[in-house]
């Protein structure tokens, strides 16, 4: 890994940190701040087609079942696809209010697609699926 990729990796890791700080605060606007306007999110049973839909979904969720929750997210890998694209893979789980650890059946594997736009790394696409327990 060269110095530029090392700096880019640090910046992408900060996107994760900022996003989960926003999650803990229940702040949907801050949560989507590092998403492109045309970002997509696919989760089991859900497909969000742009940042506005993602923001609304998170706002609704923070007001209801995700209220006072946090996320644990372990970055597994970042691969760079040229200078302006990267794919990150993580393993994440939601801690609901009062929980100290995520039950094994609530972990997901996630794929993140990042693009550098205007010198800033932004989320273009996110997809997750449950971790296979077998």
Task: Characterize this entry briefly.
The protein is an alpha+beta fold.
Features:
single chain, 134 residues, alpha+beta, Nuclear Transport Factor 2, Chain: A, 3 helices, 6 strands, 30% helix, 41% strand
SSE blueprint:
Blueprint: H1 3-25, H2 28-31, E1 35-43, E2 46-48, H3 51-63, E3 70-80, E4 85-95, E5 108-117, E6 120-130
Parallel strand pairs: 1-6
Antiparallel strand pairs: 1-2, 3-4, 4-5, 5-6
Characterize the structure shown.
This protein is an alpha+beta fold. The chain is built from 3 helices and 6 strands. Strand 5 and strand 6 (120-130) form a beta hairpin. The longest helix is centred in the first third of the chain and has 23 residues, at 3-25.
The strands making up the biggest β-sheet line up spatially as 2-1-6-5-4-3
Structural shape: globular
The first-level CATH class name: Alpha Beta
Report how far apart the termini are.
34 Å
Helix content: 25-40%
What order do the SSEs take from the amino end to the carboxyl end, as H and E?
Answer: HHEEHEEEE
Determine the CATH topology: Nuclear Transport Factor 2, Chain: A
Low-confidence stretches: none
Do you know the CATH architecture?
Roll
- Alpha carbon gyration radius: 15 Å
- What's the number of domains? 1
* Number of E-type strands: 6
Largest sheet: 6 strands, mixed
Helix-strand category: alpha+beta
Strand content: 35-45%
Contiguous helical run count = 3
């Amino acid at each position: 890994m060269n110095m530029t990729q090392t700096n880019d990796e640090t910046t992408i890791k900060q996107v994760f940190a900022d996003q989960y700080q926003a999650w803990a605060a229940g702040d949907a606007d801050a949560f989507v701040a590092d998403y492109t306007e045309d970002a997509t999110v696919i989760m089991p049973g859900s497909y969000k087609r742009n940042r506005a839909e993602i923001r609304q979904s998170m706002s609704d969720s923070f007001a209801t079942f995700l209220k006072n929750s946090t996320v644990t997210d372990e970055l597994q890998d970042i691969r760079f696809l040229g200078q302006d694209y990267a794919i990150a893979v993580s393993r994440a789980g939601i801690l609901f209010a009062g929980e100290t650890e995520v039950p094994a059946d609530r972990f997901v594997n996630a794929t993140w697609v990042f693009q550098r736009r205007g010198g800033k790394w932004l989320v273009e696409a996110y997809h997750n699926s449950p971790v296979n327990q077998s």
